Amino acid sequence: MIFHVKCSIATVLVFAILVCSCVAASPAKGEKTADKAMEAAIQVVQKKCKVVNPVDQSNRDLLDVLVNKSNMLDKTFIPDELVTVDIPFGESVTKDRRKMRKDAARALEKMVATMKKSKLNVIGISGYRSFQSQLYVLSGYVKTKGFSKANRTSACPGQSEHQTGLAMDIGSTGNHGVLGLSFGKTNEYKWIIKNADQYGFIIRYPLGKEKITGYSYEPWHLRYVGTKLAGVLKKNKWTLEEYYGDQDQDLK
Fold first, then answer.
1. What is the mean pLDDT of each run of 10 residues along the chain (252 residues)?
2. Does the domain spanning 50-244 belong to CATH 3.30.1380.10?
3. Is 241 a catalytic residue?
4. Which of 25, 81, 188, 240 is 20 to 30 A from 219 via CA?
5. Which is catalytic among the residues 39, 109, 210, 218?
């Protein structure tokens, strides 16, 4: 009798383990739906993002390289000398997105250190992104906004400045590091508008230039071009598109 009881308990335990294993291995209904939605968004991005003029290999590593909706980087391109930027970052920012090209990283470190002396606190939110990473970033927005709206603030893979290693999205501790238009109202942003060119940076997508750049106003998006060109762009109130005469961007 005791033997039969032990066997029954053992049988029940084995059955329970098998059931639990099956349940654990099967994703929840919500997860399945989310996965399908993301897969669908990725397919939309792959269909909608057109192959445009490739950036010449001899120009890809230049500080003044133009990457936009008309000029794209190859999917295999990874910039040289990517280093971690030594500035504060949001807790959720991954290691790769804390990186920039070495010259851009050092310039940003100096600028942030100078700002801190004036009690202005900037944090990094997103630096370097690979071609594949940008595919998932845009797809995430497409899933919730649709392609047209998403592509106003998020680039197609290959068309993102983040792939150059020369761009960094920033926020301030004053607005809780939020990536959005509210950053444009902070004292940090006002300081950047006035002084960023001295460190080689520009606001890449300024207000009022949406039809030229092809993107909505992004006060958070810094682009390193070097001090000389940054000064020229600031003096003439030009975007990189205007500097190069490439103004036929598409903002739908």
1. 42 40 45 79 95 94 96 96 96 94 98 97 96 96 96 97 98 79 94 98 97 97 98 97 79 50
2. yes
3. no
4. 81
5. 218
